[in-house]
Write the structure tokens for this entry.
Amino acid sequence: MTAATKRDSIKIEIEEVFATDSAPTVVLVPSTPETLANTTRWSQTWPDLLVVAPIHVEALTPQQLLERVRSNVTPPARILIFSDQLVSALHANVPLEQAGRIEYVSGLEAVLNARYAYRIAVWTPEGFEVQNPCETVEVAMGMLIRYFAHCRSLGERWIMRDQQTSRSLRERVVQARRELRFLESAVLYSCRANPIDECTQDVLARIGEAQKCLIEARRVYDGV
Amino acid sequence: MAFESFLASTALPMRLLRSRVSVIERFLETPLTDHDIQSLTIACTRSQVRFGAFYHWYLKKLIISRSVRGLDKHAMSRMLARYDHTDYGVLEDIARQQGGILVAVPHHGHYILSIVSVAQRLCKSREVLIFYGDPSTHSGNEVFDALYEVLWGDANARVQVIHDTRSGMAKAIRGLQNGSAVIIMPDVHKDEHETFLVPFCGRALNVMLGTAALARRTQSIILPMVSRPQGAGIGFANVWGSVLRPNQASQGLACVGTNVADYRITAAMFQFFEEVMDSDIIYWQYVRQHYMREIEFPILMPGSISAIVDLVLACPHANLNLGSIVRL
């Protein structure tokens, strides 16, 4: 399939998915120059369309989307999620083990599917794969895994390709160790002139325990 | 005034430049990136100088580096006598005491000249070990090896160079236990995960606790020192901090581990460095990297510590949620 065909298929089928059925639907698309450019047009076509895309300033965050879904008596009918942009620890916080490796993905899609009865339409190069509402978490996660595999097939046109490394356990451990050391330093600095009381001892012990857990996790899952 | 100092003085108008000049960067052989410029602009504002002050400083460093090349031991001593305006009373008092001494010197100002000056004085009363990164892993440090070879290369010299290797560390420990002086540069690290953070000149800075730990283990004292440039030419003066005694500071803290005591000493050491360097931060070797960082050090109020720790430990940046793995 050529690049032009792929681009057109995303454009055509997203319209079909939203147009053919009025059931609440979440569409997952990859971040490519074409899909990002089309987002504004899609929002004009469907004024009720809610978009989750952290790199897009006008889009919603996952938290904002969930608030909208929860607060409305009638759930928003059309949601577009660039799941490949949900890479940060804040957005991708569900550890998923597959083939002995752990990667972090967003739980948003699974929540929308399982709890709020959205059907999920995932882009594939051959068209959209549609997942019925109220599936299990495992089914929803499996769908996400396939979505990422399709994203990878886009090669350099997938603009979030390089950012996906931050899903790995290895990367998360590095970041978490950094956070904990920062916290530990802030605690040590704040009490540098005073005796260490029981409360501070307890706090330092808890941080130390969390640090040990990280190192152990990396050893167990990453073999290092 | 010697030629090199005269040269630096004549370039003084360079300090009036308000923004970057690519021609000067080419002349100084130091092309700056946009990030460098952004970072240096922050540093210049903090030091209340114009951007040209960085160029002038860089020129001075170049002049020194070229002047030092090819000097023999005696010419180097004459050069130091000309430019060093330090009052060494503090050092002489300390040198009369027994026990190991760690002289902690950040990469600021003319720190190499300062280290040579201090080593020349301390070696009259004790062995001096100069501790720095192994040139095989710290590119550029071969220059120091060559310089120290010229100055103290003979068999009878009481000044030796040691590197940050296992054998170098063992030598430092043995030396300090036997009352030697070790000159160490505590503002560098190899592995971020071995560092802690301290507030430093408006940003958080990663620092090793190694200097404090070394002093504690060997019951040595730490003498913090900053090399501060003086005047328009090449002059400098060493500024001394208060003596730190990690062995005493660690008493009563055994129940919470050695990191607490070592952190306190390290924070005190960097607080002194900050007091001297903050207004002259553009003379610090790592100024560019420092201000590329945006994170300030958080000061926690004692009453809020427990609640903040609870929040951070629960947030997904620190809590990897490994108790709830979804397996496919």
The radius of gyration of chain B is 22 Å.
